[in-house]
Specification:
Structural class: alpha/beta
Order of helices and strands: HHHEHEHEHE
Helix content: 25-40%
Distance between the termini: 40 Å
Radius of gyration: 20 Å
CATH class of the largest domain: Alpha Beta
Amino acid sequence: MKQLAILGGEPACTEGFEKWPQWGESEKQELIRALDTGWWGIGSSVVEEWEKRFSEIQGVSHCSSVCNGTLSLVVGLRALGIGPGDEVIVPPYTFLATASAVLWVGAIPVFADIQIETHNIDPNSIREHITSKTKAIIPVHVAGCPCDMDSILEIAQEHNLKVFEDAAQAHGATWKG
């Protein structure tokens, strides 16, 4: 590459990204069905049906719908007892909600570096950032690629830390299987 494309050089990529989000007719029909009920909050049969289906897809016993991923992180952090003065190790390469949720509960996000091969949090960097105030690690499974959970869970066990996975980009992804 002799000159950057922005300066008149040959572009490395000539096609744009696919339209996102993507949906089809079945998704449109489900949305209309939910809207037609007039009730899509707590206690809605549509929400309960969604939670049941999503739990099955994820292989868990239950799930609770919230309005967005940021709030789901806040709810999870509060459920783990994370609060003011606590440190939570997060990756720098993620949607801003990961660190924002930590701040929302009064805790301090501490950024551990990522692995260049996966763009996921680097377990070695996690080790380097643990202090006496560290209470949790939030690994983010970027673009459907699971983090090295074996190493992360081992580190957490060694230091008595909680692990709260941000899988907003990886619904249905599995580690080793």
